Amino acid sequence: DVMPTLDMTLFDWTDYEDLKPES
Amino acid sequence: EDPCYDAKQRPRYCIPDFLDLALGREVQASGTCGKVPQKLCSYQDPTNITSRKCLICDQSRAKTSYPPAYLTDADAQTCWKSEAGVKFPKNVTLTLPLGRRFELVYLSLRFCSPRPQSMAVYKSMDHGRSWVPIQYYSTQCRRVYGLPTSGTITKAMEHEASCTDYQTGLKPLTGGLVAFMPLAGRPSARRFEYSPVLQDWVTATDIRVVFSRLHTGQELGMRRKTTFYGVTELQVGGRCKCNGHASHCASMPEGLTCDCRHHTAGPECDRCKAFYHDRPWQRATPSNSHECVACECNLHSHRCRFSMELYALSGRRSGGICTGCRHNTAGRHCHYCKQGYKRDPGKPITSRRSCKPCQCHPVGAISAMCNQTTGQCQCKIGVTGLTCNRCALGFQQSRSAYMPCVRIR
Fold first, then answer.
1. Is the ipTM here above 0.90?
2. pLDDT tens by residue, B126-149
3. Residue contacts between A and B (CB atoms, under 8 Å)
4. Using a CB-CB distance cutoff of 8 angstroms, which residues of chain B are in contact with residue A15?
5. Are B365 and B340 contacting, i.e. CB atoms less than 8 angstroms apart?
6. Is residue B213 within 8 Å of B116, Cβ to Cβ?
7. In this complex, do A6 and B402 lie within 8 Å of one another by their Cβ atoms?
8. Do the chains contact at B391 and A3, CB–CB below 8 Å?
9. HEC secondary structure over B46-108
10. CB-CB contact of B151 with B26 (8 Å)
11. A11 vs B390: CB contact, 8 Å cut-off?
């Protein structure tokens, strides 16, 4: 089975703002 | 046809044309006659000591002047004359700056006076800052120069000046010749191209001739105060020093410059030109042109440097290190992709697009770097996929960007 790609909108970026890709 | 390449365009040893280095050049003379009018006597007949003829030397009139320009003009009749009555240890010198480094083949002086009893030839290799003797001539070598009259030149002394009594005889009284060939009689001359000692020996930027002693007035059959050194022609034959890498020396605003081949550069082809640093520079020989070789940078750089250490490690085959690799490549030959990029297997390494970004997932991957060959990024626990963009089987996406996939309970 092919898993769905990671949905960036589901993440809570509060503590990981540096990981958040620029929109 | 280029003499530096054979019919199959393979590089080969080449040398520039032979030149008369003195012709038309200015010679500096330390003592020319006629600052005040002087009487100078010379001979009309080379063999007859009674054929004396005396003339006035007076620099205030062209007709009675004998300037150093007469040494190197095209007229074989004109004659430079020294001041009269020069007495040992006072000497008279002629200095000829050549303008660049040449390899001397011969030097000759044609006299309009009797040849000197003692004279020396010097060369400079640093444009006149220092001088070394290359030949002494004297009927009394020991007494005048402190040297023995030379016989055979041995290998140990082939780069040293010797003293000879040849060409010092009183006769011919006029028109006599003193000639010097720096390679004549030297044991390594036959293998000149392989002898750094002799290559150095013949190299000169300037020539100086020092007239040390006249024959005595008694020998000359005239009063000393009318005797002088007189030279009709100073000839210096040689070639531009191009180290076997040029067949032509071109006249440029800055002087004669070697037209360098074999991917060499510099006024004497004495270094490899930019980007041709895969091997160390060497002088060419007839058996090996030692051409400079381009670095292998897979079309990603046009700059490189030479490393002797790498050259030795490669068994003296290749020592070039590419610098400034472009198109996201790296390495000595720009032969792999820099960090954060992976090889595109469908394109040759020489392609501008042979390296493409890893595109590791900003959350799923540990870093932006991937395996060069496979493109596999390093994934966090529970994450899979070439770019780490999916949760593995048994894992599901969390809300934490720190741990994006958690085990399903």
1. no
2. 999 999 999 999 999 999 999 999
3. 46
4. 402
5. no
6. yes
7. no
8. yes
9. CCCCCCEEEEEECCCCHHHCCCHHHHCCCCCCCCEEECCCCCCCCCEEEEEEEEEEEEEEEEE
10. no
11. no
